[in-house]
TrEMBL record, chains A, B:
GO terms for molecular function: DNA-binding transcription factor activity; transcription cis-regulatory region binding. Pfam families: TetR_N (PF00440). It comes from Methylobacterium variabile. Keywords: DNA-binding. Residues 27-86 form the HTH tetR-type domain. PANTHER family: BLR6905 PROTEIN (PTHR30055:SF181), HTH-TYPE TRANSCRIPTIONAL REGULATOR RUTR (PTHR30055). InterPro entries: Homeodomain-like_sf, HTH-type_TetR-like_transc_reg, HTH_TetR. This is TetR family transcriptional regulator.
Length: 237, 237
DNA sequence: CCTCCTCTTGAGCGATCGATCAACAAGGGC
DNA sequence: GCCCTTGTTGATCGATCGCTCAAGAGGAGG
């Protein structure tokens, strides 16, 4: 029971050089820590322990604190690495691409976006941060709302000959229209990555089918939402 | 800084009767603990601490262990209280109600189901349990799949003159059809309860609108999925 | 070979975790 | 009035948390 360490490092006479903890450059060591922290905290949640993280990395626990002054700063770095760094400016370009119909822009954005976030670490750390009350999830979804959905809805208004957002501001129900389809796609990943359901081998194909089913009626529903939201007698029509 | 206790209980000479910790019957004390534990663990996650839970209840921490031998047993009790006990047999009756069209059964089930689970404790503990690797979420969603979606899909097959599940087993894509709409509705609650987004005042109305938008095309999509899933030359048609 | 810089570690600090135990206290039955 | 059952608590245990610090150890430059 006592000598349970798997390999190396003799128990007594502690000054024996370790085989695992090779000497690395500061840069590569920091990268190793960040990658390991992403995988570890994704698995056990942000309440994970620094000692266990160090054990998995094969390094001593104080070494973590040489590269990150606190556990919170390491988690902050994970946010940058997993969420901010994986945000693609191409998404914002896609939804503004005037050469494509709005529905096709939405479809292309969602397929690529979902492929990005249907990731063990992305989804689990996102949810864990939400549970812990961090503002990362709300801020991130605020970006989706303002940088993706808002310009898309603006062009959907134009495509349907509806008043522009300058003339008649976007209403919550319009965003809910897009968040509804969005949520159906996200839920596919959540069931697998967070709830541990084993079904659905090809989630990408499932999402493509969902979009095929939901998109055809979207513009009509959008028109209904906007016209109903504006109880003004239609003069110019 | 030292005498920071809010009320009662003198600091020194510790044997003073406490005003808050009144003597309760075992039954009502246990209920108080369960209710408080649900609220507390929903707020901070299942990694919450027994000392803080006891402090919020105004009782001593060891009292928790008189009613629940371990923290895990208390959490197990929460599962029974929040999930098993709130499962409504009426849901299984609704989706089998032959006097209603399948789409109406689905609509009624989802509206009532979502009203049940769009609850701070329900959603957050569900997600927290999933992150900690407990099998509660997968088992619960398995119940939804087998007891709700499976009988509903069977009758949808009949309503569309498609082969019964006995003749041709239900395929994963059919379940995904229902889980897609289901996920869009769940996501409305998740954004508010877990991700902390403040939007959407009347989530119930938003979900009703989502169903109005998604249900009309559901049967046609279902027919397409089933017929495509069976690459046999149609003879008897 | 020695030196110095820097990556790395063992030991340990104060705080806090889940859980235990003997002692206190509030009523109900006699 | 007393006693005995039972709800309740303070004190405390061993383990583990985030974090600190001084000393060990591996290379590059001289």
């Amino acid at each position: 029971m006592a000598s349970s360490r798997p390999k190396g490092r003799k128990a007594e006479s502690g000054t024996v050089s370790v085989p695992t903890g090779r000497r690395l450059t500061a840069e590569s060591r920091e990268r190793q820590i960040v990658e390991g922290a992403i995988a570890y905290f994704a698995e056990v949640g942000l309440d994970g322990h620094t000692r266990e993280l160090a054990r998995r990395l094969g390094i001593a626990q104080p070494l973590l604190f040489r590269y990150f002054p606190t556990k919170a700063s390491l988690i902050e770095r994970i946010y940058e690495e997993v969420y901010l760094k994986r945000w693609k400016l191409g998404w914002e370009e896609t939804v503004r691409d005037a050469s494509l119909p709005c529905l096709e822009r939405f479809r292309r954005f969602e397929m690529d976006y979902q492929r990005t976030i249907d990731d063990y670490a992305w989804l689990r750390i996102f949810v864990s941060a939400g549970l812990k009350g961090f503002d990362l999830p709300s801020r991130y979804l605020g970006m989706v709302r303002e940088r993706i959905f808002a310009p898309l809805l603006e062009d959907m208004r134009a495509e349907s000959n509806l008043p522009s957002p300058q003339a008649q501001p976007l209403v919550a129900d319009e965003f809910e229209l897009l968040f509804g389809i969005h949520g159906a796609l996200v839920y596919v990943g959540l069931r697998s990555r967070v709830y541990g359901m084993d079904g659905t081998a090809d989630r990408d194909a499932v999402r493509a089918a969902m979009l095929d089913a939901a998109l055809p009626g979207l513009l009509a529903t959008h028109r209904r939402v906007v016209t109903r939201a504006r109880p003004v007698n239609p003069i110019g029509e």
